[in-house]
Amino acid sequence: MSIMQMNGGSVIAMVGKDCVAIASDLRLGNQSLGISSKFEKIFPMTDRVYVGLPGLATDVTTLHQQFRYRLNMYTIKEEREIEPETFAHLVSSTLYEKRFGPYFIEPVIAGLQKTPSGDLKPYIAATDLIGCLNFAKDFVVAGTASDKLFGVAEGLWEPDLEPEDLFETIAQTLLNAVDRDAYSGWGAVVYVLTKDKVIKRELKGRMD
Questions:
Q1: What is the edge-to-edge ordering of all strands in the sheet holding 198-203?
Q2: With 90 as the cut, is the pLDDT of residue 14 above it?
Q3: pLDDT for 182-198, tens place per residue?
Q4: Which GO terms describe its cellular component (predicted)?
Q5: Over 90: is that where the pLDDT of 208 sits?
Q6: Can you tell me the distance from the alpha carbon of 68 to that of 158, in angstroms, rounded to the nearest whole number?
């Protein structure tokens, strides 16, 4: 068994039209033994940047605190809010520092990036254990249900989805994928980021 499957969990981020969504399941397990159905894996870094941390539960807590500390240091030094692309590189360098004894986490970053003209455009990225960045224009996935998430997302995702359609697409993708994975599931949470608000919704899932 891979240590990445010890606690289970999956995260997906998806791009829409001037909006972005990130979603995760809520299960915390010890392999096939379920422990909690309220384990958060998605954390707001700023109003426009969210990070999902699927992997080993102890490293989820450690890395969240590490990112929060580095983000505060950046804000104090730069006197401005961090952009999603900059945060993705911060995540990458934090993981690469520990490459010889890595954190067992595959972060997923979603946010709205400010362009030179002042507009906000969706931005998503994911990294592996040692911080190798993977950018995408449609969706990125991580966690124990990755294969299933890829399959369902490729069938459901379309370009330029409005916020409500994006929510429906990411919710159906996640729920259908985790139903086919023993280590993920037990409900889900979805965040949809638009130019003027963040929508958070919790979903009920199968509990077997």
A1: 139-143, 10-15, 20-25, 188-193, 198-203
A2: yes
A3: 899 899 999 999 998 99
A4: cytoplasm; nucleus; proteasome core complex, beta-subunit complex
A5: no
A6: 33
**For residue range 29-55, what is the model confidence (pLDDT) as tens digits?**
998 888 988 999 999 999 999 999 999
First CA to last CA across the chain, in angstroms? Answer: 21
Residue 208 domain flag: no
CA dist 143 → 113, 178, 196 (Å): 25, 10, 30
What is the residue range of 193's domain? 3-203
Contact 41, 90 (CB under 8 A): no
Q: What would the DSSP string read from start to end of the chain?
A: --GGGSS--EEEEEE-SS-EEEEEE--EEETTEEEES----EEESSSSEEEE--B-HHHHHHHHHHHHHHHHHHHHHHSSPPPHHHHHHHHHHHHHHTTTS--SB--EEEEEEEPTTS-EEEEEEEE-TT--EEE-SSEEEEETTHHHHHHHHHHH--SS--HHHHHHHHHHHHHHHHTT-TTS-S-EEEEEE-SS-EEEEEE-----
Q: Which residues contact 166 (CB under 8 A, 6 or more apart)?
A: 14, 16, 19, 20, 21, 192
